[in-house]
Each structure stands twice: as C-alpha cells, then as structure tokens.
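Lab meeting prep.
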Amino acid sequence: TDIGSQKDRVVSEEEWLQKWEMGNIGFHKEQGHPLLQKYLDVLLNGRSGLRIFFPLCGKAVEMKWLADMGHSVVGVEISEQALKDFFAEHSLPYCEEPIPEISGAKKLQSTSGNISLYCCSIYDLSSSILGKFDGVWDRGALVAVNPRDRQRYVSLMMTLMEKNSSYLLVTVSYDPNKHKGPPFYVPESEIKSLFG
C-alpha cells in the first residue's frame, strides 16, 4: 500500500501543457474508455438528462457520446488546445466566454449548450461556479493529481456532487517504485480513506 517515491512527485501545470503541445498524450483514448461503456448503467442508474462532470477532461470522446445521449456534460482542463481539439475533432461549433470569477479563465460551450468545458485549474472552480452534478467520470484525474493534492482534489469533488450522485473512478495498479508517474498509483486503502 506504500506509494513509494511518488509521494513527493509534483507535475506542474506547465508540464501538462507541454504534453499537449508536444502531442505526448498517450493517456487519450480515441475510441473512448471501455470501462465507461461497461459501467455506464452504474453511472446513469436508470436516470436520463443528467449533469455529468469530467475532471481533467482533456479531449475525451466520451463527452460527446454522453451529450448525444441527452446528458449535459461539463469538463475542466488546463490545456485550451485540448478543448479546442475536442470541438474540432467532433465538428462541433462552440463559443468562448470569460469566467468572471477566475482571472484568465474561459468557458468553451457547444452552441447546442449541452457541453461546457472550462479552461482553468480545477482548483479555481467551485460549486458556486459549476453547480452540482449527478455523475462524475474520473477516468484519469485522481491518478494525474499530484499525490500531495489528493485530499484537496477529493474535497472539491465532494462539494460538486448531488446527494444521489454516482462517481466512477478508474485507477491503475502497479509497483510505484518502478514508475514515477503520472498516472500515479493510488492504493485502494487510500481511495477508501479519501472518499469515505
């Protein structure tokens, strides 16, 4: 259960932006994530027209997939390039507007209105800006967050969830002494202590 040498590892926002600029995005899945398809019923729980949050969304194709099913999708990503790539790759028209509460941040929203992507640090967001969500698809966010920031991240997630919200979390299991991350190793015991 020890996370080994990873506990002090820090990946800066600049490093993430550089990954996008260099096209070093092996974490992006062109076909969508098979685990979301497998556990979609758990996320939706028989409900339709949900608000679903994609933390650290990148250009995840699942955002369009869920929006096409009639859900409202909100994502956050530090890389504006990733967000613009998402709209371009799906031929979706969108408009941009500043987020008054966050200096330098912007929201890119599909003209149909069902996909809203925030370009800023996730830690600049709050439920007063985003509202609350019926579901969260955390495919690569918790494992990308710097280990020292996990509690801060999970605390934010908790404030964004409605009472009967579903939270789908994907992690990776490996020997943390053999890989420096990201994705970071998050032991199951830590997931239980973070989310309760």
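Slide two material, second protein:
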Amino acid sequence: LAKTTCIESAMALPPQVCAQLCRRPCYCPWVPPRCPRGSPLVLDGCGCCKICARRLGEPCDFLHVCDQSQGLVCDYSTAPAGTGATCNFEDGEEGCEVNGRVYRDGEVFQPSCKLQCRCLDGGFTCVPLCQEDVRLPTPDCPYPRRVEVPGKCCPEWICEAQERHLLRDAGAAPGAALRPYPCQEWGTEWSACSATCGVGFSTRVSNQNRYCRLETQRRLCMARPCPALPAASPAVS
C-alpha cells in the first residue's frame, strides 16, 4: 500500500501530532466494515482506511470522523480537556435523524409520499398528506370501498358493483346478514306491548338491518287474550 500523509481535521492538529497518530505506511483490512444504515464508508482521519462515518450524537475523534455529507463535524465544545467529543452540526443547531438520514432543525421533509414532516428541536412532527375521510353508503353508491390505486400514493374510494358484492357474500354462512361493511350490532330491549290484551305492538331502536343504520323497529305482540264479552240477555216482552 502506498504511503499517505495526515489530512486536515476539525482539530487543526499540528503536523508533528498528525505524524504520531497516523502510522506510515498504513495497513487496512482486506474486507471493509459493514456500516449501519445511514452511515457511509469514508476515509479515516489519516486518509488511510475506509471506516463507517459517525452519525449525529455518536462519539468521534481525530481518527473516527463524522459524516460530512450530513453537515456533521466532531464537536469538542462540550468535551472537557478535548475528550469525549460527539458529532454535531457545524453551526451548533439541533437536528433529527429519520431512517438513517439527518435533517437540520426546521427542515421539512417527506419520509414517504403519505407523510410530510418537520424537524424541530431534535425531534420531528408529521402530518398526513392523504385524506382520512369516511364515505358512507348512499343510494348512488351503496357499496363504497377504499382501495390502493396503482401509480397513486393515496388510496381512493370506489363504488363496488352490487352484483359483485352479492356474489362475494353468497359464500357467507347461512343466515348471515348482507352488509356492505363490518357492523357491530346494537339495539335496545323490546318495549312492553301496547295493548294489555289482544294484539298490539312493541318497539325498539336497533341497527340490525341490511345497512347497519339505527331505526325504530316494530313487531306484533299479545300479552294475553282479551276476555270474551258476556252474551246479551234475551229481551223480555
């Protein structure tokens, strides 16, 4: 391997110190290290061997350099006696790391087509870019369904054909109600019969119907038969 010279560092070390830290010639492993996601392979502080660049908040020194592509430098400002330095932004601003990439404080970014985020005070907040609306069944679209559309990021609502929906439900368990979407059944108890004797009706409020909508339901009832009327007495002449 060819000999190398000590490269400039953030510490601005004098040449004699660099000569002590960087051995000549340099010897590097045949197989370069496997770096974690978001940490690229870079030359060490001696400009000799490939190492994994240190990321935001990770320890660093003259040999173990920070990821300059992310605007990071080895910050010795909070390190006593020049020890315990960490990678930080050059201007001292806080940043955040998402999916292996570092963003500056205040920077707006999109980790996916469905989210827009903003880096703020070392953390980040996101807002959805896809509408989370709910479409209820209507007479012109009784079977709405949200599907992923090829080539589009956000899912869209479509009106499923009634014939297809009925065919799909044909294989359901016998007696199962045909509903265009999952329904959690709810209802009140049946009221007392409206007539104390004979045929009357009782009511309840329930969503146990085809469209899972609350409605007042009625049914016939009879508490007991009404007593027979007494026979009329024959008229006395």
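Talking points for slide two:
The chain is about 5% helix and 25% strand.
The two ends are 144 Å apart (CA to CA).
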